[in-house]
Design goal:
With 317 residues, the protein is an alpha/beta fold. The chain has helices at 40-45, 48-54, 62-70, 117-124, 146-155, 171-181, 187-200, 216-229, 246-261, 273-279, 297-302, 307-316; strands at 2-3, 12-15, 19-27, 32-38, 76-86, 92-102, 106-110, 132-137, 140-141, 156-159, 234-238, 265-269, 282-287, 290-295. It is built from 12 helices and 14 strands. The strands form 3 sheets. Strands 1-14-13-7-12-11-10 form a 7-stranded mixed β-sheet, sandwiched between helices. Strands 6-5-8-9 form a 4-stranded antiparallel β-sheet, covered by helices on one side. It has a 3-stranded antiparallel β-sheet with strand order 2-3-4. Helix 6 (171-181) crosses helix 7 (187-200) and helix 8 (216-229) packs parallel to helix 9. It is globular and about 50 Å long. The protein binds adenosine-5'-triphosphate and magnesium ion.
Length: 317
Amino acid sequence: MAVCGRIFEIVSRRCNDNQLVVTIPNIGPRSIQRLCINITPLRKSHDLRQFHKLFLGHDTDIEELFYMAFKDEGDNIIVVDNISKTFPGGVKALVDFSTKIHRGEVVVIIGPSGSGKSTFLRCLNGLEEIDSGTIEIDGIPLDDNKNNRLEIRKEVGMVFQLFNLFPHLTVLENINLALRRVRKKSKEEAIRTSMNLLEKVGIAEKVDNYPSQLSGGQQQRVAIARALAMMPKIMLFDEATSALDPEMIGEVLDVMKKLAREGMTMVCVTHEMGFAREVSDRVIFMEAGRIVEVGTAKHFFTDPNEERTKLFLSQIL
Ligand SMILES: Nc1ncnc2c1ncn2[C@@H]1O[C@H](COP(=O)(O)OP(=O)(O)OP(=O)(O)O)[C@@H](O)[C@H]1O
Ligand SMILES: [Mg+2]
């Protein structure tokens, strides 16, 4: 697995609750050797501007440093360790797959068809069983314990390529269902929350419509509102815009960008590289159930390491 870090390397790092100390050789004309950074605000916002300030005037690559410094950071909301999944018939959808995702991080997953992207997302919320390895969501192991699985289902919202709204329920009823059944809200509270969510995704005027009366983009925004109604800590998006007409892609991506800016932890399978560049903290390129390369969107756009990555990007860009 290749990890970016062409421009510099972090020789060592120490991290406690509020301070990160990194030692870096030969950066820029003044050759900074050791940096002490108060990471409390960074942890909350993943704010790149803090790094920009620190490196003002130096010849370095801020995003890469940010990624390198934080890739092992402690506050991991998703910890996936060495998972494998083989489907009946022998297809190895995931092979020794490991990653950690920080709270508030936006990760984009790219890769050719059949590389295991959907399987990975489905494993994260327990829709698919893994054969080996472990998954932990916000400290809860996704194991055989039924309560753990229920808890994880609540914390992980998912939006699919096809919207999967209930056709016989109105927009409001589609959203209310989760609030009433899963979050056990009173009727009044459920309606109030639903309306807030519909406003958030910019579709409050369609509250009494049925899914068939909405455009694809509108249905997908309702699907996002429905997933948010569970008040999840993590949102998974599996090609949420790829079934949409081009003019509707933007409106759904806008909702996703808004969520990202609000600090939602997001794992998004998407080929929307503009989205990746604008909001992702990290891009994972996978093939045949394995991670081929990980880095910032900028790394992938400007100078990916692996030949396989270059070939794939040349096909989708
Ligand atoms: N339920 C299943 N039974 C058998 N094989 C499956 C099943 N689901 C997925 N697979 C196989 O596992 C592999 C990974 O599938 P997956 O859907 O995760 O790929 P993907 O990267 O999401 O592809 P795409 O970009 O086409 O959506 C594929 O070879 C697929 O055919
Ligand atoms: Mg898929």
